[in-house]
Amino acid sequence: MVKAIIAPSMLSSDFANLASEAQRMLNCGADWLHMDIMDGHFVPNLTLGAPVIESLRKHTKAYMDCHLMVTNPLDYVEPLGKAGASGFTFHVEASRDNWQELVQRIKSKGMKPGVSLKPGTPIEEVYPLLDGENSVELVLVMTVEPGFGGQKFMPEMMDKVRTLRKKYPLLDIEVDGGLGPSTIEAASSAGANCVVAGSSVFGAPDPAQVISLMRNSVEE
Ligand code: DX5
Ligand code: ZN
Questions:
Q1: Which NCBIfam families match (predicted)?
Q2: Which of 22, 143, 154, 204 maximizes the CB count within 10 A of its CB?
């Protein structure tokens, strides 16, 4: 069985207190910190980049799961590697011409390569990235349109997760967008093992309880 990984999305945190917010999530049982990097071009929102990852790295040894919603992911490999990012997940829609070079460079910087796809992108598009030498080690299935936290989970994306899980029993399959106590069951039963959650965790009176509920659902 694949391991359950719960990754609070720091996009829903108080950015002015990022280090203490990260520590609060780790104390609540988070496995990874999900860091949403947006360039204001691939998506209509602008968030954070390598300098913020570097600053946060000085405060925590935690795994930083970086989700690159950017048009030119290749430009971010070197700076994010230096900054101390742990995972580097790029979008397949932004890397159709250069994913092999991208994966190679991500690995050479010691980061875990992942690929993400938007709701409108068919799952077949990631298959070539899962075979051969330069393959990714994680697939992030978006369950909302990327760009903003607090949107509604799209249950129809679970077909992608199911199909992928059947083909790749040991792959890390991550879901992102609208995950929380009311949607976790759909995602975990489809076969997702990495769960990103922003508003449901940060908005909860007891984030530890939400994290453990989601972990139990994946481990069931
Ligand atoms: C959206 C981001 C998500 C977002 C999730 O583009 O990739 O990580 O922060 O937030 P919630 O869990 O609130 O949908
Ligand atoms: Zn994300």
A1: PRK05581.1-4, rpe
A2: 143
